[in-house]
Specification:
Elements (H helix, E strand, L loop, with lengths): L4 H31 L6 H27 L2 H27 L2 H14 L2 H11 L24 H7 L13 H38 L20
Helix pairs in contact: 1-2, 1-7, 2-3, 3-7, 4-7
Length: 228
């Protein structure tokens, strides 16, 4: 019967196997992105790999607790997963609540803090110069000394232009749609997986309080039973 001991056990095992697959997928994406030089920023790759490893460790704890019906493992699994739900749900809700102006501010601050080679890589791929129309950030009083040069990019953009002050368009407007899509995607996926974590906590709590039918208590033997 669904909702019984066996059903709760199988559902919890299947959910944790799904988490393990997602964790290995994150690790594979991080390794591939680093090997193919899609993402050259090591902290980003390290963050992806760390998320995959943490998810696999939590899933292994849940799998071990589900297979053995171990009360202590299931208890700590519930606590860790509920804390992860609170953090993930808060971050996902913040991503969905950010408006376009706040996204632009976050993107501009991020542009000023990323390494120079990453900014140059963005400029080369999008054929743009600086973050906004003035080049450096408008919110910073002093332009960063390591701002990548736009001389070669401007030559490519203005190859067929007759204007003396021709220059490439800024990168900020070109990144707006990508930034908005990234925020919405992260928020949507975060909300979806946070509710699966609630489901896992519910299943673990239900399964933990159920009695294993394989370990039924021995029936008491009364003296009158020996008469038959």
């Amino acid at each position: 019967m669904c909702g019984g001991f066996t059903c709760s056990k199988n559902a919890l095992i299947a959910l944790n196997i799904l988490y393990v697959m997602i964790g290995f997928l994150l690790i594979g994406v991080g390794v591939y992105a680093r090997a193919a030089s899609i993402v050259t920023n090591l902290p980003i790759v390290g963050g992806i790999l760390a998320c995959g490893v943490i998810l696999i460790c939590i899933s292994m704890l849940g799998l071990a607790g589900a297979v053995k019906h171990h009360q202590v493992m299931l208890f700590f699994y519930m606590i860790i997963l509920f804390m992860l739900f609170l953090i993930q749900f808060s971050i996902a809700s913040s991503c969905l609540a950010v408006n376009s102006e706040q996204q632009q501010q976050f993107a501009e601050q991020g542009w000023m803090t990323v390494p120079t080679d990453l900014r140059k890589q963005v400029q080369d791929s999008l054929k743009c110069c600086g973050f906004n129309a003035t080049g450096p950030s408008t919110t910073s009083v002093v332009p960063p000394p390591d701002e990548p040069s736009c001389e070669l990019i401007n030559q490519h953009c203005c190859a067929h232009s007759t204007q003396a002050d021709c220059r490439c368009e800024p990168c900020g407007p070109l990144l707006e749609d990508k930034i908005d899509y990234a925020f919405k995607l992260c928020g949507g996926l975060g909300i979806f997986f946070s509710f699966t974590e609630v489901l896992a906590v519910f299943l673990a709590r239900r399964y933990r309080n159920q009695h294993d039918p394989c370990y039924l208590p021995a029936r008491a033997v009364f003296p009158r039973d020996y008469l038959y």
